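SEQUENCE WITH STRUCTURE:
===
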Amino acid sequence: RLALMGASKTGKTWGAMTFPNPVVANFDNGLVAFYKRSDITNVPFYDKAWIESWYKRSNELPKTKFPAAPAFEEWLNIHGSKLESDQTLVIDSWTTLQDAFDQDYDEHPVISRSTGKIDDFGKWDYKIDYSRNILAKCKSLKCHVVVLFHEQDNRDVNGQVTGKIEPLMQGKFQKKLGLYFTDFFRTITRAKLDPADKKKVIGAEYFWQTKSSDDCNLGSRFNLPMFCEPNFEVFKKAGGL
């Protein structure tokens, strides 16, 4: 179970697609470059029409305009146990899944029984329960699991940037994300220089950072180098698969 944290355009999706037979819970609609690959199963949670058809097959019309979060939970309940050890569930991305939860909740908030008003704290309690339930189900699957996270600057209680990088997720559950993964990496990119002219940029190079540094907390169950190729093969070479 791999968490891949990184900024946009640092190769999170590309790295995830190196895992065997990806089944992508696709919230970001970022698979255009992979449409010709026959080994990828695209489950389009970004698509309103597809979500509506999913609910109709379940004999329940959607209650919101874009109920991606409850649709994914239902899909995971039904199909998660069917995924085999030679497959990979990719959640792309956790950040957008959380946004979908917020949208669904804001249209159907919890009403306090005592006051009859919206419970301002109810959203966070339900969000923690939802997140815990999704990741606990992922831990029980037979297949590989890769979850993609956008990243953000960590801030202290006064809102000041601390110099640390962390997964983009609001609320206290963010601190517990690491408990649900065997490996937590960060995607890194840097300019690729022309060997004949070190001042000339000819492209980009991509890496996985596998160990903690001063600016982020990471880790792996394997003895991997600090930076490695962003590819499923690194696990196989480490002797763990």
Q: What stands out?
A: The beta strands are 2-6, 22-26, 41-44, 88-92, 144-155, 161-167, 183-194, 197-209, 227-228.
